[in-house]
Amino acid sequence: MKTLPRLLVFGLLLIGTSITRADVRFDPPEKPKLRIVVDLGAKKPALLTPARPEGIRDVDPLDKKEESQTTRPRLWIVGAALTLAFITGGIWLVRKGTSHKILSLIVCAGLVTTVGAIAYADIPVPKKAKPKEQTLLFEGEFELSAKGDKSWTLVLDPKTFEKIQKAKLPE
Amino acid sequence: MNTETLSSIRPVGISGSSTWFIVGFVSLVIVTACLAGMAPIALSVAAVFLFAGPHNWMEARYILGRLPARTGRLFPFFLVSFVGIVGLTVAFWLIPSYLRIAGNSLDYSTLYAGWNSLFLLWIATLIHMRSRTNPRFDAGWVWPVAFLLIAGVWLEPFALSVLLVYLHPCVAFILLDRELKRSHREWRWAYWFALPVIPLGWLFVCWQSYQAPAMAGDDPITMALMAHAGDWFLTDIPPRLLVATHAYLEMIHYGIWIVLIPLLGLRSVPWSLKTIPMARRSVSWQSAITTFLLLGLLIVFVLWACFLVDYSTTRTIYFLVAMFHVLAEIPFLLRML
Q: pLDDT per residue over B239-277, tens digit each?
């Protein structure tokens, strides 16, 4: 009879984990965006790069093989480690003889983790307000590549160049 | 062989009331918090330059004084400790060299995640082995926790490495507590009451860091300090606060190792070998220990000279080599529990 409540607790934990895993926010890799702005207060031209540049490729951007080669085995290891954690944890609890105190502690911890993860996954990412004194000339997706030499090169296609030429500065 | 028993040798440091010890500890924390808050770069540069080498020497001397003359039944524990310390340190040194090789098959994230996994498994093994010797304890929780952490390091390979930079200085607080339990048991309560001054000092460091202008970070020394404090990983935290926090913890760590623990724990002057159990085994052991300690002193002087020649490069190399003592503290701490 003792095994039934234990199984029930583990079952609940597993269900909780699945719900949490299913609700974890998944951000697909965003394509880098290019913004060209005119800052009337600026004294020098500046190229502002993100603190953590994402999407830089030194191979064909359409080739996804390289990315999956490193991330997939890593996720397998994460899965294997989590499985071992649950197995060893379960064995430890069974050998120790779970008391009501430990059981309630595990249930509480599981609930807090589940609710916390769901809440965290649903937090909207705050959008940064655009500075008022800047005039946006262009905003759109662009290719970020490490193919260039030591200088930062901004390559414009004719359409984008046309758009920028048509833009008017505030008086 | 010296027939004098270890129990007959009394500490040469402070004795009597805990007041002076607590005054010393709190003063160390307050002065460090003020310096770290107001001049984090200067404190970090000066602290590592002056105290990094001596604190390693004092630590080695203290550990030698606590190691048994013969390993006996603890041989497997010491063997696993030694293999882990040497193996993990060498692997840590080799990772940057491997990454510089053109056409390598493993990327830096995989290598550091692998290193962190081995590190966690090593600690788990040591805790498991430690739990089977007196005083025994239930260490069944160790494996689930270790595997959970391993899953974490494969999701975020650098989180543990950055965490270690800040956790390692804090190990000194636990070791000081263990030393008090061993040699000045009646002072422990006073120490525990004084411990909250550390987070309070850190809050002062935070307040000062947010008040001060942002760090420029365009010279090699500042860049080395910022990189070591993990500004490349903790991008949302101001680099000044990271450098100040690291300098604050590191300086207290040095203070504990160079002043407080030797005053409390050493049973003779540091250069005396009579309180090192291994040196009492035979004349050859005594010579080996003497050579080891003299070599350590030589390294301290070489380190000072290198710091004077090229501070940022020496600092980077020092913290790479210092992994050895970070790892050595772990089995030592486990034996003191």
A: 899 999 999 999 999 999 998 888 887 666 777 777 888
Residue pair B281/B72 in contact (Cβ under 8 Å)? The answer is no
Helix axes B159-183, B142-155, angle to 10 degrees: 150
Instruction: Say if residues B332 and B66 touch (Cβ distance below 8 Å).
Output: yes
For residue A92, the chain B residues in CB contact (below 8 A) are 140-141, 143-144
Query: Would you call B151 and A85 a contact, using CB atoms and an 8 Å cutoff?
Result: yes
Q: How far apart are CA B204 and CA B248, in angstroms?
A: 11
Mutation for B interface: A74, A105, A106, A113, most B CBs within 10 A = A74
Sign of CA dihedral B178, B181, B187, B189: positive
Across the interface, whether the CB atoms of B148 and A82 are under 8 A apart is answered: yes
- Residue B316: inside a domain: yes
Looking at residue A60, its pLDDT comes to 46
Check CB contact of B107 with chain A, cutoff 8 Å.
yes
Could you read off the pLDDT of B182-193 as tens digits, one per residue?
A: 888 888 888 999
In a domain, B1, yes or no: no
Look at A70 and B110 and tell me if their CB atoms are within 8 Å. Answer: yes
In a domain, B153, yes or no: yes
> Cβ separation of A81 and B150 shorter than 8 Å?
yes
Instruction: Say which DSSP state A28 is in.
Output: P
DSSP calls for B58-90: HHHHHHHHHS-SS-GGGHHHHHHHHHHHHHHHH
Closest listed residue to residue B237, CA positions, set B140, B166, B136: B166
How many domains does one find in chain B? 1
Q: Quick: pLDDT tens for A86-120.
A: 889 888 888 887 677 777 887 888 888 888 888 87
Average pLDDT, chain B: 87
What confidence tier does A148 reach under pLDDT thresholds 50, 70, 90?
A: low
Q: How far is CA B58 from CA B80, B265, B318, B335, in A?
A: 24, 11, 16, 18
Residue B22 resides in a domain? yes
Q: Which residues pair with A36 in a beta bridge?
A: A138
DSSP string for B207-220: HHHHHSPPP---SH
pLDDT band at B202 (very low <50, low <70, confident <90, very high): very high
Q: Give the pLDDT mean for B185-205.
A: 91
Q: What is the tens place of the pLDDT at every residue in A114-124? A: 888 888 777 77
Separation CA A96–CA A98 (nearest Å): 6
Q: What is the DSSP letter of A104?
A: H
Tell me the mean pLDDT in the region B296-319. Answer: 89
On the 0-12 / 13-18 / 19+ scale of CB atoms within 10 A, B132 is exposed
Q: Where are the domains of chain A?
A: 3-166
Q: Which domain holds residue B92?
A: 6-336
Judge whether residue A50 has pLDDT over 50. yes
Classify the C-alpha dihedral B222-B225-B229-B231 as positive or negative.
positive
